[in-house]
DNA sequence: GTGAAAGCGCTAACAC
DNA sequence: GTGTTAGCGCTTTCAC
């Protein structure tokens, strides 16, 4: 293993000089800098991460608690994580995947100085982790928007606005009886933040618009077809649909295409997943990668001591992607 | 921040005693142990991870390079990662998500002592990372089976055997013209390990069985329907199908169900994803979680100095899940 | 513009 | 069964 002492010896300088060349916290003569840098390159030196964080009291690692729970759409999760990872990498931060779903995992990572900051996904409206996080002093960003977040930073897509937007569009298309098919039952039962907000926005807008709206859980499998049919059979007056379940969409879309009745379906989904899906009036994009990137930027900003907005919600818009 | 010295003072012992209580590497009197443990609990002490790894020369972190590349099925990836994470957590290891797709990311993590071991996914048959990994001296496990792995540990599902198994089943069902619809074109073009092996097993078995087999790329979107139709239109004699594209399956299955022609379709997929999908003769399970867990066990074993088998391939079998 | 040296919080000899 | 202490490889004062 090559250490800073090896580099210093090879360059004929002291170890502190090597350190300062790397950090740029001191002015170094052109000559010295070049000798040190070529020694680093020649020896393939890479500083020992633990030694560095012990001395500098910072790890350049962000702890990420990503959901491996039932019901959440893995594709969306992965896109968000990809956004986080890319933004973190570009700023020389690594991501530590926390291997526990509860508050303990977060506390341990923070207490053991494993991470500089925490990022928590799959937030519920009344999330039990929040109380713990608030008294942790470790900078934290939630991807979601729970109640009682205190001054924890929150970043997410504005699902409430998306619900309103969809309702308005359906109303404008002339529908007076509309339905939202959304997350599977287990996600709703947990009061997952995004589902709660989507429902709220959709129903509130329906009421304001004077149309009848309803929300329904939707399984994330082929069973979705039967679930949707059951609802539509019972209330055939439903002609406008907002569909927010990425995994179920392919099943249902293929079904709808073969359906005689003429209904308007709006999808709420990352664009990539609706590609080629037939029978949609339009799509509201869930900008998953951008959510992750925004969350990462927020936490990096906080680590730099920036005081930014505490809540950042990405605004919805129609993509115009009305397939086939 | 509470340190080991605080605990030692509170318990009235030396810091080494505290350390030994935690590691169990020394016999401690019942009395002392209790005093130390209650001091730890009372102070909510958690050892500084970097200090520990600097002194112990091990991080208890496994670096994971997971693919964020085009074409790979995120659902399968996530399940594998979940398997890795669970197994790692149960053995007190954390997972560092490497934020770069290339060999450099691996080298940096290893050189900087950020990780004790590396796990690499999305392996290509002739993977450019392998040469680098082989001379790295950091224990490494590949999820895949490339050529020239040297003594790098390889863990994966036996896709070649799965291809054979499916061909045999289709032949037994009386089909003489069979097709494999598999990964999207970009995955095949990279010569991704699993796709190459699946194709090889399928075609080899067909030849041995004296039936005609062909393999076809399949887009992972709704476009899959058209792609499949194009092939079947051109060669209507194809009556047996092996389908290995989780994202496309819902689209195609719904389509097949409405298809007049009677074809037998075998799916190769995690069981969860075929739930409720109609029209399948049978399913060969891709045990994604188990792949991840096996990979984790392999790397943990290697870190303990165990000498296990260098290649471990999980064997395929039919699940009997012939839906609807 | 550069060096020397005191820690950072822990582990693991080495003592008794 | 327990304590003392020399590092682990860095960052960052302090000194010149």
TrEMBL record, chains A, B:
Record carries keyword Transferase: no
Domain of life where this protein originates: Bacteria
Pfam families: LacI (PF00356), Peripla_BP_1 (PF00532)
Keywords from the UniProt entry: DNA-binding, Transcription, Transcription regulation
PROSITE patterns on file: HTH_LACI_1, HTH_LACI_2
UniProt keyword Protease, yes or no: no
Annotated transmembrane regions: none
Domain HTH lacI-type as annotated: residue spans: 2-56
Gene3D superfamilies documented for this protein: 3.40.50.2300, lambda repressor-like DNA-binding domains
GO MF terms, alphabetically ordered: DNA-binding transcription factor activity; transcription cis-regulatory region binding
PANTHER family in UniProt: LACI-RELATED TRANSCRIPTIONAL REPRESSOR, LACTOSE OPERON REPRESSOR
Entry protein name: DNA-binding LacI/PurR family transcriptional regulator
Native organism: Microbacterium ginsengiterrae
């Amino acid at each position: 293993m090559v250490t800073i002492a090896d580099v210093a010896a090879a360059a004929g300088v002291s170890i502190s000089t090597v350190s300062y060349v790397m950090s740029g916290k001191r002015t170094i003569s052109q000559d010295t800098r070049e000798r040190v840098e070529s020694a680093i390159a020649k020896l393939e030196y890479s500083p020992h991460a633990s030694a560095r964080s012990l001395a500098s009291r910072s790890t350049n690692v962000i702890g990420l608690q990503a959901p491996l729970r039932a019901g959440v759409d893995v594709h969306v999760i992965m896109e968000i994580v990809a956004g986080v990872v890319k933004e973190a990498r570009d700023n020389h931060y690594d991501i530590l995947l926390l291997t526990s779903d509860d508050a303990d995992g977060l506390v341990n990572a923070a207490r053991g100085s494993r991470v500089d900051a925490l990022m928590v996904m799959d937030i519920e409206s009344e999330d039990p982790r929040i109380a713990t996080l608030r008294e942790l002093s470790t900078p934290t960003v939630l991807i979601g928007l729970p109640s009682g977040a205190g001054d924890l930073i929150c970043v997410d897509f504005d699902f409430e606005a998306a619900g309103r937007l969809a309702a308005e569009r359906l109303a404008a298309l002339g529908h007076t009886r509309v339905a939202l098919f959304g997350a599977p039952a287990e996600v709703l039962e947990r009061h997952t933040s995004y589902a709660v907000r989507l429902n709220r926005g959709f129903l509130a807008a329906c009421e304001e618009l004077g149309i009848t709206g309803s929300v329904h859980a939707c399984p994330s499998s082929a069973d979705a077809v039967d679930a949707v049919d059951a609802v539509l059979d019972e209330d055939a007056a439903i002609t406008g649909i907002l569909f927010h379940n990425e995994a179920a969409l392919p099943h249902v879309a293929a079904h709808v295409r073969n359906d005689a009745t003429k209904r308007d379906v709006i999808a709420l989904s990352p664009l990539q997943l609706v590609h080629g899906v037939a029978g949609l009036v339009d799509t509201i994009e869930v900008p998953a990668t951008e959510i992750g990137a925004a969350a990462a930027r927020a936490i990096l900003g906080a680590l730099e001591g920036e005081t930014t907005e505490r809540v950042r919600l990405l605004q919805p818009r129609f993509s115009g992607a009305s397939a086939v």
